Hints:
Elements: H1 2-31, H2 35-39, H3 42-63, H4 71-90, H5 104-124, H6 131-149, H7 155-188
Helix pairs in contact: 1-3, 1-4, 3-7, 4-5, 5-6, 6-7
Amino acid sequence: MSGALKNLMQGLYYPAVTGTGLVLVLFRVTMHESPQSAFQDYALIYGVLLVLWFSLSFVSIGIYPEEEYSLFEFVLDLLEVGLTFGMFYFLGLFSTDVIHVPNLRGMYGLIALATVVQALWRLFWHDSFGLRLWYLRVVLFGVGVAGWAILHRYPVFNFLAVIVNICLLFGYYRIIAKRSVQKINFEFK
Length: 189
């Protein structure tokens, strides 16, 4: 059963949401009249970041042993899939007729919730990624809560939140890449 659940998650749900997000971001790009207006659109910026975050999350689930993937992990992953889909919605990316102003407050709130879901997933997995991943999660959760609470109203916060997200994304990539290499080396021994 665990193999079937993991295959369902990795083979259908993760790619479906990532692909939907990617298509929505690309469609949003075509709605802009100039590259300058596209670069100033937080829906596009966060849409790209969400696709990258969710792609790395997809890679990290591949590291998890198939035989240990239970219904509990599946439900947490399903919740993360739903939260990510909701983030695309709050960014206004589902509107294909006009460019809507993104609901950054809703998006930040879902970032905070998704961070908690991922932390729970790692906690019950007895995560061996170390403290760096936990620090990363705490910072991302803080950005989400601060943005949800009040700071989403301030352009300087939104700009800094994007910079922080890019830095955290790079850190997450380094952690996942290191773990992937360790897994590959272990499998070849």
